Amino acid sequence: MNLLGDKNILKASVINIYWERINLYIDVKVEVIDEAYDTKNLDFYLVNGLYYSKAHFEVISKENGVYRLYLNITNPGYNRCLARGTYNIHVCCGENDYGRCVADESIVTKMSDFSRSFLYGNRGSVYSVVFYVSDDDDNALPFVMYTMASKATSIGNLNPMSLSPKEKIVSTQSFVTRLWNRYFKKIKNFFNKFISGEGAHRRRVKLIYKTLSKNLKADGKTILFMSEQNPSITANQKAVYDKMIARGLDKEWTIFTSFRPAAAEKQSFKSWLSLIKKMAKSNVIVLDDHAPVLDWLMLNKKTKVIQLWHAGAGFKSSGYSRWGNSGCPSPFSCHRQYTYGIAGSKRIAHFFSEVWGINTEQVLPTGMPRMDEFLDENYRTETTKKLYELYPMCNGKKVILFAPTYRGRNKLEAHYPYELIDFDALYNLCKDEYVVLFKMHPWVQMPVPIDEKYSDKFIDVGTYPNINDLFYITELLITDYSSNIFEYSLMKKPMLFFAYDEIQYSFSRGFHRDYKESTPGKIVHSFKELLSAIENNDFEYEKVQEYIDEHFDYIDSNASDRVIDWLILGDMPEEFKKSIDNKFKDTQETAILDFEPELEEEATEDFD
Q1: I need a labelling partner for 59 at 20 to 30 A (CA). Which of 270, 407, 487, 512 fits?
Q2: What is the pLDDT of residues 514-571, one digit of tens each?
Q3: pLDDT > 90: what percent of the chain?
């Protein structure tokens, strides 16, 4: 880089900082002083103390000389967290470096307010982003950003001399006990790591995988459909698997499957060995959810990983979009190993890339494969007929489908507060017009408490396997934060959102986008409001089409073919391939930029 900071060409001042989850936004006001230099297309880089560029900010807007910079601190372009370092922001144009940003006087006292700490690893580790002003320049206020990951340490008073005689005895005993526990803990950890326990198990698995994957061919044709959450193949994976068979690709490819509930249940060594053998032989691995084994097992670089995420586009935060909250992933996790992911449209791809901690360019708008069957007219006709036979009470009635997500931190705690449902009032509202189907989240084990007197209008359809089928006969969907709205929106029918705990949910679980702006229907916060909305047909139905336009690039039955052609066979449209290549190129070029100032040669005297 041509270092021109001493030329006083422009002044760049940070005037504001704000966060959206893991997304950092910095407003920089640029005042051009010397117009002889090109300042039209400015770039902003994070440069550390060793003069290496670690991130290239995205300029998302420019107005009246104010540039809004954007950076995802969990992924500055290379699918890893921003490395530990002390950073300045350098303003550049082409090969010219016009110097570093300063802090505007108006924000100097607010720097600590802008700083953030993100807890992870069961709250035993923290990733911190700290802003301050450097004191290395007497004439300016250099803006500094510092990042660091650290772990929890114990803090206590172990100095017996500062205690009373009685306390000294207790403290000495405690001190000796602590020393013994610490020593014993080291022995125990050594035993677990090398002989038994989870540490030893992981070492064995890693060794087996590394040995078996050494001869993996880069151009091989072996694919593994895998889930550590489900005991059988379903949804997106099944659609792609069935399509590969239908197209005869099973004659060209070796197709493996591995489906086991390993995320919740302990697995035998035989089960692990079977999985690792298949993974080691596979050139392509297709997932549909988080696979915990890949949090700690690094795959061979020749292996392509495709994530066919099970949720179309809901509101609940997950993965890195909830970083800093309970249950969030560590800096390196399964998600970092995805080669590609899928979405319904390019406009919503960034929601998925934020969750997975990968680049948005890697998320392709193939559409959801499971919707191929859903959008097939023959399947719809046959399924509708079967549903009316299975649930004859729905014939000639308007069907309300009550299908919220669960509450609780995980599968074991999953529940729904049925006491919030006023069954009497809902039953009276139905009259001869409505019937209500209750379809709770699969994790909610407790059935809906429907009294016998409501059985002619209410039914619990929790055991019905595919909620999408129920959408065919549904006239009104009542949900909350579930992604089931994705498929249902294509029915072009009204929705209501019973978000009685919106504020609490936004803090405990979190949203990865604005809930009020994104819901394709009316939000209500009490059951009374819910009933009133139904009575008055107050659904804010106009939002449905807006949602469809935003979330779907394709509305057809060809999503499975796009996944196969684009991601498995590699025949990707040029525009997407080019965007991925350009992102990779930009990241590489950013990493090799040299911001180190040249040292002046020391003057020497000639004594001749």
Answers
A1: 512
A2: 788 889 999 999 999 999 999 999 999 999 999 999 999 999 999 999 999 999 999 9
A3: 76
In Å, how far are 13, 40, 465 from 32, measured between CA atoms? 12, 10, 63
Q: Looking up tokens 């590699």, which residue turns up?
A: 570
Q: Is 379 left (phi over 0), alpha (psi -120 to 50) or beta?
A: alpha
Q: Does 604 score more than 60 pLDDT?
A: no
Side chain identity at residue 162, one-letter code: S
CB 14: neighbour CB atoms within 10 A? Answer: 25
Task: Give 192's pLDDT tier (boundaries 50, 70, 90).
Answer: low
Q: Are 286 and 226 in contact (CB under 8 A)?
A: yes
CA 220, CA 283: separation in Å to the nearest integer?
A: 6
Inter-residue contact 499 to 523 (CB < 8 Å): yes
| DSSP, res 395 | T
- Report the length, in residues, of the chain: 608
φ, ψ at 180 (rounded to 5°): -65, -45
* Tokens coding 265: 């249940």
Alpha-carbon gap, residue 345 to 363, rounded angstroms: 9
Longest CA–CA separation in the chain, Å: 114
d(CA 553, CA 571): 18
Place of tokens 């929601």: 351
Residue of 445, 463, 508, 450 lying closest to 481 (CA atoms): 508
User: How many percent of the chain have pLDDT more than 70?
Assistant: 90
d(CA 393, CA 381): 19
Task: State the pairing for strand pair 363-364/340-342.
Answer: parallel
Q: Output phi, psi for 70, to 5 deg.
A: -130, 140
Q: Which of 383, 323, 325 is nearest to 507 (CA)?
A: 325
Q: Please, are residues 41 and 93 in contact by the beta-carbon 8 Å criterion?
A: yes
pTM to 2 decimals? 0.87
- Given the structure tokens 């297309």, which residue do they identify? 41
